[in-house]
Amino acid sequence: MIQDYHDFLAEVLIPEDTLQKRIAELGEQISHDYQGKNLLLICILRGGVVFLTDLMRHIKTPHAIEFMAVSSYGSGKRASEGQVRITLDLNTNIMGRDVLVVEDIIDSGHTLFSVIEMLSTRKPNSLYICTLLDKTERREVKVPVRYCGFEIPNKFVFGYGLDIDEYYRNLPFIGVVDLKRYQHN
Ligand code: IMP
Ligand code: MG
Asked: N or C: which end of the chain has fewer CB atoms below 10 A?
């Protein structure tokens, strides 16, 4: 049985209406900044997918979307430099494109650091990050964040694309996990 999330939800950190209002603002800002550009949104699977689909509907400039998946070597291990590999690559040539990587959350920054490094060798015209959440105090390496939805404290969060052991990505809000009450599957 999958544990009911109500049993380990410590608090709702960002409610649905706050998320949606901020995502609309980000979409407006991106629409303004990328006018006349050849915008390509690259979503990092799977966490970024809910954010991407809401965000893109607020972007008024023409754009394409692509998907990429990465994993860190060793399950459950934190990504560290040089330990990230592509498990699903793009189907598109990004040379000369204005690329915006759409991600759910940045923690240490190692995952996106590797992604940015790999993508930059393919010669895009520009390459930036749009992240919904940022645990800024945890940052170990610098990554080019151009848009950030919310800076959050160092707590384990779930919902709105973010999983706890692969479940509850569907929730419309960001919740904090009470790790003492969470039973691992
Ligand atoms: P980084 O490489 O340390 O920046 O880790 C980023 C990745 O860790 C994200 O793409 C998430 O998959 C995962 N992650 C970090 N913090 C959380 C969290 O609070 N909830 C769920 N996933 C998280
Ligand atoms: Mg992720």
From this structure: N
Probe target for ligand 1 pocket from 5, 45, 84, 107, with the most ligand atoms within 8 Å of CB: 107
- What does the pLDDT read at residue 73? 67
Q: Is the CB of 107 under 6 A from ligand 1?
A: yes
Is 107 a residue of the active site? yes
DSSP-assigned letter for residue 77: P
Distance 95 CA to ligand 2 centre (A): 24
Neighbour count for residue 155 (Cβ, 10 Å) = 14
CB 155 within 8 A of CB 136: no
Token pair listed for 105 = 């959350």
Domains of the chain in sequence order: 23-30+37-152 (3.40.50.2020)
Q: Are 171 and 15 in contact (CB under 8 A)?
A: no
Looking up tokens 């809000």 gives 173
Say if residue 81's pLDDT is above 70: no
Q: Is the pTM of this model over 0.70?
A: yes
In angstroms, rounded to a whole number, what is the distance separating the alpha carbons of residues 65 and 45? 12
Burial label, 90 (beta-carbon count in 10 A; 0-12, 13-18, 19+): middle
State if residue 109 touches ligand 1 by the CB under 6 angstroms criterion. yes
The 10 Å Cβ neighbour count of residue 114 is 22
Residue whose CA is closest, atom 8 of ligand 1?
Answer: 107
